[in-house]
Amino acid sequence: MPAQPVVVVLHDGRLPPATAMEPVTAHAELRPTEEAGLADALRGADVLFAYDFLSTAVPAAWHAAGSLQWIHVAAAGVDTVMSPEVRESDVVVTNSRGIFEGPIAEYVLAQVLALAKDLPGSLRLQREHRWEHRESERVAGTRALVVGTGPIGRAIARLLRAAGMEVHGGGRHLRLDDPDFTTVTDAAGLTAELGRADWVVAAAPLTEATRGMFDAAAFAAMAPHARFVNVGRGELVRTADLVTALRDGTIAGAALDVVDPEPLPAGHALWDLPNVVLTPHSSGDVHGWRSALTELFADNVLRWVEGRPLRNVVDKSLGYVPSTGSRP
User: Is 87 a catalytic residue?
Assistant: First the structure.
């Protein structure tokens, strides 16, 4: 490690909180940059802090990263930086696992409750000044399938179970005695499990294996009363297939924190579908989240300069941090 390492901070005009960055400033030279200047900033740099975790500028600037040793992404998903060149390099990639699990689980539970109690419909009636008695659904006793059994998926499962729901998982490997999901189905059993679910929650990382996994066939496998909640990545879904499924009643509704494309363009069909709730990729963004992200990176910088193991090292062949146990 260089005596005075150079850390590039990729941002979108909003810099990391200065107080949280103080431990980094004490040990490294900082080069803040937005996307347009990334290639120039990477020349001679040792570390990239992808604070703008939605930026897709890294692959195009990679030719200038000849001395880079480590990329830290201020998100759980690292798909925006995981180009073939990064995957095949010796550069270590770390993520922000541990920051978003609880907030995203709360968001999913909130959306499940809102859809079951038809809170969007109540708001519409309120705007119309209509006092209209209606009945709502219980969530206790219903069945949820959480696709993605990493830390975020497990936090979701535990919170949904606390609300009285039966929760199962969809992952890479079949498991019959999982502590959070009871059973986890693999790809071979996913279609059948989709058909048994009242709620399908997408919380998987975006990889080549998961891209577009929720397509017309997946929605056709779901029950007509089922709802779909996406807190993973928009590209997990074939958007046109989702719109069709929502329009023709193949599924009953959706709550989407992530979409493809993102941001959702004006005039897109998803804006106006009455059975859709949209939020702008903010399910994990609770008060203090930017400081928490920066503090995690600062802790990793201290580990790096002291020669200690880094937290949240991504397995680049998988595209995420492998779990060390069934309940990380």
Answer: no
